[in-house]
Amino acid sequence: MSKRPSEVQNVALTIAHGVLATLSLSLVLFAYERALIPLYGSGPTSFLLNKITLASIALSAVHPFKISLNRNRFYAGLALSLAPNATYWIAVWSSRRLKDPVYGPALTHLAVVWPLTFILSTFVVENSPAGSRDSIIPRIVRAGVASILAVRLAQRVWPSVGFLNHISGSEIYLALAGLAYSSWIALFPTKAALPTVSKKQKSKSISRSATSAQIYVKSGLLVGFIAVWWSTYDKLKNPVLPHPLMETFTHPSEPLQVHSAVESVTGLITVGESLVPPGYTGTGNDMYSARYIRASHSILGGVWMGEKVHVLNDELPLKDSFGNSLGDSIYATFVLQEAVRLINSTAKGKRGKWENALIIGLGAGISATSFIRHGINTTIVEIDPAVYEAARTYFGLPDPGPGNVFLEDARSWVSEKRASTDAGHKEKLFDIVVHDCFSGGGVPEHIFTIEFWETLKVLMEPEGVLAVNFAGIIRSESSRMIIHTLERSFGNCRAFHDMFGELSDEIYDTDFINMVLFCTRSPEPIAFRNARYSDYLGSPLRRHVLTTLPKREVNLDAIRTSDESKYVLTDAHNPLGKLQEEQGNHHWSVMREVLPDVHWETY
């Protein structure tokens, strides 16, 4: 027998409620994870998030209590109203008090995600066309479907939806809270006083009058709620800055400015500046008068500002787009990459006639700016447009020229150029390639495989030189994989560190270090000429790093293994990303030592 219209309507409403609840849950998970990554990084944030989410959804399906859906709407509105500030302040508190990138996020997940997920998934598991509570099997099935859809939407779909980059987590939470409160009011059972009627009136007329009265009452309640909601809406938002940030934010109590904050392809890209605190009498090595660019919980680079801008022989300093003077890089590793120009064991190196350079991974643009200033035609491949805009606006990156900037994934770009070359088209060949894609806490593993390096070599001169930055524990599985893969592809590599002190053998196993590997297919052993004044570009840091280059060599024999074949990274065998995630906890602690907590909490 066919179902009656009322039954069909009930089934349709049940499905619609389930879909709406699942979409709401996915948006909550998306907003929550996006809010936590700037405070904890992607690896620590995601480590236990899915497990806690699934456990909460499972509990909503198996507990023995019948929960009123209308009462649950009120609970949802209340929890979502508290979520913006709960997410931010619990994460801030846990990061400061626990100082642990595992327990801190876990505590925040339990305090925020667990109740939100339980409440929202209840709409799915308790939602039955018959109105009564289903047995445990249907509830578990619905919970399983909802969890899979919600997590996939949150982690794979919503991050690629561009307009969500302009909507804050607070706005997502509070929009859903407003919907929950409104539906609670609209569906709340009410009793309205009816006018006195004669005995002759039919029950049908009474029913219509009651329905009309209820509509008037609920309409009035909704109007009143909307008025109250909009008057309190802004007060429920957390202190996270708007993205994109339209003007420089100056912290009211700390020596800190944020010039730019943009949700972009790789996450939140922020340009901050550490100002000199009032009455400051510290040392010149403290992290003040420094401008930096950060991607979530990792610093991509930065420069010294103000009284820390120093130049050699009164040369003019580099300036940003606003005319502010810029000092040396806050990290020596970006200057160390420039030592590729000093290699004189190749034909072009001996002549000192470097023509074309390729930068893969821009950061603050320190090495790219140097190459351009040295007259080298420089091509930039950077996946995140916000990083390129920040380098141009706040870090003095000159215009690389037409056709020299590609804001896309390096693997795709290199593959396209290789295909063009194979098709007989003449493509630019590079003398120098700088590959700087380690952020410390994570790595785009697909551009470290043997297949990538082999494809890249097609775009390089036969004796072209590759400089690869590695950030992490030097004597580790991930560093061995990088080294053995590069040596398998290029055959000839040397490495140098950026530390100001001595790199003892013990430090190979303990400290988080930046190391630059220089590799080439040239049969000649890699050799460097002595640095000269023109190499420094007026920079004291360049003079120091380049003149001390022989003392900075890393002993690759102390890292290599005899069974090198198992350490070669391929597209089919590539555990690099997972290994770097395991170092993410250490990287989080290192970053918290570089900048005060308030810098990580202001974004």
Quick synopsis:
With 603 residues, this protein is α/β, with parallel strands linked by helices. It has helices spanning 5-40, 42-47, 49-62, 69-97, 103-125, 136-157, 169-187, 203-232, 333-337, 347-351, 366-373, 385-394, 410-422, 450-457, 477-490, 533-536, 540-547, 576-582, 584-594, 597-601; strands at 249-250, 256-264, 267-274, 290-295, 298-304, 318-319, 325-326, 356-360, 377-381, 405-406, 430-435, 460-473, 492-497, 512-520.
Topology:
Layout: H1 5-40, H2 42-47, H3 49-62, H4 69-97, H5 103-125, H6 136-157, H7 169-187, H8 203-232, E1 249-250, E2 256-264, E3 267-274, E4 290-295, E5 298-304, E6 318-319, E7 325-326, H9 333-337, H10 347-351, E8 356-360, H11 366-373, E9 377-381, H12 385-394, E10 405-406, H13 410-422, E11 430-435, H14 450-457, E12 460-473, H15 477-490, E13 492-497, E14 512-520, H16 533-536, H17 540-547, H18 576-582, H19 584-594, H20 597-601
Parallel strand pairs: 8-9, 8-11, 9-10, 11-12
Antiparallel strand pairs: 1-2, 2-3, 3-4, 4-5, 6-7, 12-14, 13-14
Helix pairs in contact: 1-4, 1-5, 1-6, 1-7, 3-5, 3-6, 4-5, 4-7, 7-8
What would you note in describing this structure?
The protein is of the alpha/beta class and 603 residues long. It contains 20 helices and 14 strands. It has a seven-stranded mixed beta sheet, with helices on both faces. Strands 1-2-3-4-5 form a five-stranded antiparallel beta sheet, with helices on both faces. A two-stranded antiparallel sheet has the order 6-7. The longest helix has 36 residues, at 5-40.
